[in-house]
Design goal:
This protein has about 325 residues and is mainly α. It contains 16 helices and no strands. The radius of gyration is 24 Å and the shape is globular. Residues about 1-25 and about 305-315 have low confidence and may be disordered. This is DUF2059 domain-containing protein.
Length: about 325
């Protein structure tokens, strides 16, 4: 009951999609968006999606040792890869998708994004840093869910000791990552706001349960709301993120990102890039699960069967 609310808030906390939705005087043009996609090499997302979709076929191709069988598998893999990639590109970069992006990006936004994407930092950010940042919602989701379950499981009003936070060695990569996450722009405020919303929603539910005569459940929910508001600390989430960042990101990239975060204008520009890249990835993932994709692959499999049957007949 509470986990779903917390999960959505936690994801919103990291991947902040809070750009203005109001009408703009000069929305982004299709031409500017295409220039950004070219500068950011955004179609790599289609390649990543195709490889993920065809993981089993790719594994079979790598494991095959017989030259003839391997050549046949390679031909099939390339054909399937082309089908998947084409569908993802049309979904993520097609006219409808472009029109959606234009609803919340101004022309000035996109021009700034192009400049950043073409810069040495922008290229490094897109290639190495942003893929790591895109992993953060899952990390936060897992940690928040774990803490929520712990607080829900309580059967009395006793308050456990505060969660022991990790103390990485001074100067270590994890220490640098932890310092960066603790000072991440707007993160603490977003976390506090999100947890307050969870607590408020829980109190509303408690009042509803109580009005129905379910006083025991109402008491449990109020206990949970109090724990969320008073015990769950931003530092816990920051530490969980820092562990992942330290494992996945180089020390030089952590230092560069920390410096970038201290420049409000640069951070705002980068957040636009994070927004659009997150949406591109989301659309790519949805296209892989679409009924149209399944139909395309089913058609390819059906077309391959007669050829096999014909060979068997000719023997």
């Amino acid at each position: 009951m509470f986990t779903k609310v917390a999960r959505s808030l936690a994801q919103a906390f990291i991947v902040t999609l809070a750009l203005s939705q109001a009408a703009h005087a000069e929305p982004a043009t299709r031409e500017s968006l295409q220039r950004y996609f070219d500068a950011a090499k955004s179609e790599r997302i289609a390649d990543t999606a195709a490889k993920a979709m065809l993981r089993n076929e790719g594994g079979a191709l790598q494991a095959e040792n017989d030259p003839k069988a391997k050549a046949k598998l390679a031909t099939r893999y390339e054909r399937l890869y082309g089908i998947v990639r084409k569908h993802v590109v049309s979904t993520v970069f097609g006219p409808k998708a472009i029109a959606d992006y234009q609803q919340y990006l101004q022309e000035a936004d996109v021009k700034d994004m192009i400049v950043m994407a073409q810069s040495p930092f922008g290229q490094n950010f897109l290639d190495k840093i942003n893929p790591v940042l895109q992993m953060q919602p899952a990390v936060v989701d897992g940690y928040v869910s774990k803490r929520i379950q712990e607080m829900k499981a309580r059967t009395d009003d006793s308050v456990p000791p505060p969660v022991a936070l990790p103390k990485p060695a001074a100067g270590s990569k994890e220490a640098l990552a932890q310092a960066m996450m603790l000072e991440w722009p707007d993160a603490r405020e977003q976390f506090t706001k999100g947890m307050a919303q969870v607590a408020d929603k829980s109190l509303e539910q408690a009042a509803s349960f109580e009005s129905q005569g379910n006083t025991d459940l109402a008491k449990r929910v109020r206990r949970f709301a109090t724990a969320v508001r008073t015990e769950f600390k931003f530092e816990e989430v920051a530490a969980a993120q820092a562990r992942m960042i330290a494992e996945e990101m180089s020390e030089a990239d952590i230092a560069t990102l920390t410096a970038e975060n201290k420049n409000p204008a640069r951070f705002a520009q980068r957040r636009n890039i994070e927004q659009i890249e997150a949406e591109l990835m989301g659309r790519a993932g949805a296209s892989l699960k679409s009924a149209e994709m399944q139909k395309l692959l089913a058609g390819e499999q059906a077309a391959a069967k007669p050829a096999k049957a014909g060979k068997a007949t000719s023997k």
